[in-house]
Amino acid sequence: MSEICKTCKKKFDSGIWIASQFRDEKVLLFCSDKCKNEYLKMKLNRIKTEYSKYYDKIIKSSKNGPG
Description:
Elements: E1 3-4, E2 11-12, E3 16-18, E4 28-30, H1 33-50, H2 52-64
Antiparallel strand pairs: 1-2, 3-4
Helix pairs in contact: 1-2
């Protein structure tokens, strides 16, 4: 069964998925790491523009690592 990439909209048979964050959200499917990273970059840019304080927290926690 073919799936459709969330970023480039190409059909693919095996790829990468990211679990949903919210109960009403579907699993995100990508055909490659490149498409997944492009999508995450787009989401971070939107957060940076609309929620700058939250973006700063995300960047700070990613630099400090888990825990």
